Amino acid sequence: MNLENPTSPESATPYQLRNLLVAIAAIVLTAALFLGFQAQQSGTSLDAVAAVALPIDVALANNKPTTIEFYADWCTSCQSMAADNLSLEKEYSDRMNFVMLNVDNTKWLPEMTKYRVDGIPRFIFLDPANKAIGDSTGAIPREIMAANIEAAIADRPLPYNSTSSDRISPVTETQAADISQPRDHGKKF
């Protein structure tokens, strides 16, 4: 060991080298995770799709066919369709209304009941007179959505009416807590 210069390479122990390698690996991993999260954040979000969607009252008053999407921020199928739905909105918004209703907002409970929303994403297709002409539930491929939109615009029957995919997030009603005996914690004596 060199006493004059304790930090010389000759004095480095295997533990110091291991610690240095662990520190470098931690920095690289942190940078990779940060960049990965940044890349994930740059994708199309449900908020971006909802921002270009029409309010339901405007859509129902302008005599164009309408697509209503029931969604939730926590719904992974809804998130996976966001980019496709945004591109469809941009492509067809001059001939079709696009409305997004968040199922977590109780304001939309009457619409959820009317259209029997029990899974999301749920798409309801309306004709210009606001009569329901079809529906789809779950993660639906862009081509199928586009075919249904084009048929609704052309006032033809939807080619993929009442379609359902296996990627559905169930919507359940919240259960009220039983507070009749709050101190027993459900124990039976």
Walk me through this protein's architecture.
By secondary structure, the chain is of the alpha/beta class. Helices cover 39% and strands 15% of the residues. It is built from six helices and seven strands, in the order αααβαβαβββαββ. The strands form two sheets. Strands 2-1-4-5-6 form a five-stranded mixed β-sheet, with helices on one face. A two-stranded antiparallel sheet has the order 3-7. α2 packs parallel to α4 (76-92) and α4 (76-92) crosses α6 (142-153). Mean pLDDT is 82; it is low at 38-42, 174-179 and 181-189.
Tally of DSSP helical segments: 6
Low-confidence stretches: 38-42, 174-179, 181-189
Helical residues, percent: 25-40%
Q: Whole-number average pLDDT?
A: 82
Tally of extended strands?
7
Give the SSE string: HHHEHEHEEEHEE
Defining traits:
alpha/beta; 5-stranded mixed β-sheet; two-stranded antiparallel ribbon; 15% strand; disordered C terminus
Secondary structure topology:
Elements: H1 14-41, H2 46-52, H3 56-59, E1 66-71, H4 76-92, E2 97-102, H5 109-114, E3 119-120, E4 122-126, E5 132-137, H6 142-153, E6 163-164, E7 169-170
Parallel strand pairs: 1-2, 5-6
Antiparallel strand pairs: 1-4, 3-7, 4-5
Give a summary of the structure in a few sentences.
With 189 residues, the protein is of the alpha/beta class. The chain has six helices and seven strands, in the order αααβαβαβββαββ. A five-stranded mixed sheet has the order 2-1-4-5-6, with helices on one face. A two-stranded antiparallel sheet has the order 3-7.
